[in-house]
From TrEMBL:
Enzyme Commission number(s) from the entry: 5.2.1.8
Protein name: peptidylprolyl isomerase
Species this chain originates from: Spumella elongata
Keywords, alphabetical: Isomerase, Rotamase
Domain PPIase cyclophilin-type: 14-136
Keyword Isomerase tagged: yes
GO MF entries: peptidyl-prolyl cis-trans isomerase activity
Top EC class, one word: isomerase
Pfam families, A to Z: Pro_isomerase
Amino acid sequence: LSLLGPAAADFRVKFDVETTGGPSSFTVLVHEDWAPIGAAHFKELVQAKFYDDTRFFRVIPTFMVQFGLSGDPKISTEWRSKTIQDEPVKVSNKPGYMTFAKTGAPNSRTSQLFINYVDNGRLDGMGFSPFGEVEG
């Protein structure tokens, strides 16, 4: 996992992944103007190497893929308490867009993320604010 580009404004993060078909990668372009709080928190998590050696733990082909639980319980506990404020949904949850998962409680975003496989515009009214998009 590596941060690509300048530290200010939009930035890219490359994810190196192991699949049943072998090694692969994908890049997420983060748009700070879409969800500034989410984008900043994601950058902090990436720089802390939180997502290194994590797994996709929820895959629903007609919905989304979810990840963001550390394999180290101490790290998960540390970040679980670092919730971030909700923010307005500026762009819809379209295929390939990345969003923080949250509970039904206000301001409950922590480290878990999901990437939409389909148009999940119905999530917009629930406060799921996309902050990035998978490129390619």
